[in-house]
Amino acid sequence: MDNIELIINKSKFIAYFFSLNSLDEVKTNLANLKKEHKKATHICYAYVYNREVVSEKCSDDGEPNKTAGYPILNVLKKKNLVNVMVAVVRYFGGIKLGAGGLVRAYTNACSELLKKYNL
User: Fold this and answer.
1) Domain limits for position 82
2) CATH number for the domain harbouring residue 44
3) How much is the pTM?
4) Which of 2, 53, 68, 113 could be a cystine partner for 63, CB 3.0 to 4.6 Å?
């Protein structure tokens, strides 16, 4: 799994990109990340999947409502990406970022990851 890491106010954000061939892969990807990052504070994600029907979902995984998964989903949708998933693992560094700071952090983590893939 290729990823990028950002440190923002002592919190570590690690973003992962996945291509999706089925929705079952979402659960598998999350399970693997949870095994790898047992001490992570949050594993937030979003995906857009389109075969016969468009399916999209995002999760804040305990972060304040719409401050993590939704910003990731917005980046994917603005780039018109389908059949992809981005997950961002956060290790809390002791400094609260506030709602705006969280939105910026998760948006930046997703955007920087997609730049790595030239997307």
Assistant:
1) 3-116
2) 3.30.230.30
3) 0.96
4) 68
